[in-house]
DNA sequence: GAGATATTGGAGTATCAACTCCAAAATCGC
DNA sequence: GCGATTTTGGAGTTGATACTCCAATATCTC
């Protein structure tokens, strides 16, 4: 009902604010990102920002929502046709490529926010737990499909393997971020792919 | 030379400050931790804190140094006798136990600091990269020993496996922190142990 | 195109956080 | 014990930050 109270121009302004906030919060952390930074980056005045968001918390929530959608979208485009070891390799290349494009800066948007907010914002923590659950679900479904097609051993546990794969992605991204080198992500994911491959025999 | 200018009492005060700063910075993030918070937690006055540290940056550096030593110490006690798949299982239990003790709060001290500081403090990033390199080296050496004893396939690559294992630990800790559930860490590390086990055949 | 509503500009405020200063007290070497 | 040095107390300063307010303007609906 309140959704339609936004004009086209208003929606554009709101989007611009969220995009600027996301970039800054992920890049330098939520606490280090000031409202003034966001205003400058989005090119808006204080009254504009507070017209669309009651405060910083609401902005954080909007950023998490937007980043969740974006990450799941990318995952979907990479995992959409997950039906073989080869497609997993493509998926790895997709992530390594994105990471290389940004010179390994920022790590995983969701991972960074999770590490940043888990202990200081319980609401955000739960929101992020949901995001990871969706991501994990996407991976699990792919593995189940592989299993149904006989490309994965029948006694393998897709649920556990999905958790391990997501952990490899997150841990690999963190190590790559710290070292400014895409190798850790590539190695971590490759090792998990090898593991799946071994389970196929 | 300046090292001996610290009295026993002074050393105790300094240690108290670092311990308080470490707890707060890891728990709620560096930027959210104020000097005043640290003063209160350590029971010291502003002049005391600034007597031992020129500013917040120096305090961050001291915290990283202390946490690195502590994590490597724990790893050493768990990895010291790394000579079999069984000892890896004990190592996993050690980490899961520690995580459970703190109700999955905080994640990995080094991982939290790395995610927090990588983009905003280049000096800290390099310091943390060194810490992870040491940790990785510890794991790698264990795997090399296993390989020499024939408990790991000769064509396995201990260097890559060590990176993958560390990524599994970091990713598992992050997911466990977000979900407040030790299972992801356990599953991620177990999956890597399974992988090593498979490579033994 | 007129009126209701959404959007915007920009000055202002109260609070908080990092850091300073100087003098008093405790500690150490001899 | 005495002098040099380290350690401590606590008030104060400067700047930043989240958020407010109100009037002016643009945009939609009909």
Overview of the structural elements:
2 copies of one chain form a homodimer. By secondary structure, chain A is mainly alpha-helical. In chain A, 76% of the residues lie in helices and 0% in strands. The first copy, chain A, has 9 helices and no strands. Chain A has helices spanning 8-28, 35-42, 46-52, 56-79, 85-101, 109-117, 122-148, 158-179, 183-200. In chain A, helix 5 (85-101) packs antiparallel against helix 9 (183-200) and helix 6 (109-117) packs antiparallel against helix 7. The longest helix of chain A is centred in the C-terminal third of the chain and has 27 residues, at 122-148. The radius of gyration of chain A is 19 Å and the shape is elongated. In chain A, 42% of the residues are buried. The model of chain A has no long low-confidence stretch (mean pLDDT 94). Chains A and B meet through helix 6, helix 7, helix 8 and helix 9 of A and helix 6, helix 7, helix 8 and helix 9 of B. Chain B binds a DNA duplex (30 and 30 nucleotides) through residues 5-10, 13, 34-36, 44-48, 50-52, 55-56.
The total of beta strands of chain A comes to 0
**Residue-averaged pLDDT of chain A:** 94
Q: Termini distance of chain A?
A: 55 Å
Largest sheet of chain A: none
Quaternary organization = homodimer
**Biggest interface between protein chains, with counts per chain?**
A-B, 47 and 48 residues
Task: From the alpha carbons, calculate the radius of gyration of chain A and give it in angstroms.
Answer: 19 Å
Percentage of helical residues of chain A?
A: over 70%
Q: Number of DSSP helices of chain A? A: 9
Which regions of chain A are unreliable across 5 or more consecutive residues at pLDDT < 50?
Answer: none
Output the structural class of chain A.
mainly alpha
Would you list the SSEs of chain A in sequence order as H and E? HHHHHHHHH
Give the DSSP E fraction of chain A (strand runs of 2 or more residues): under 5%
Instruction: Label the overall shape of chain A.
Output: elongated
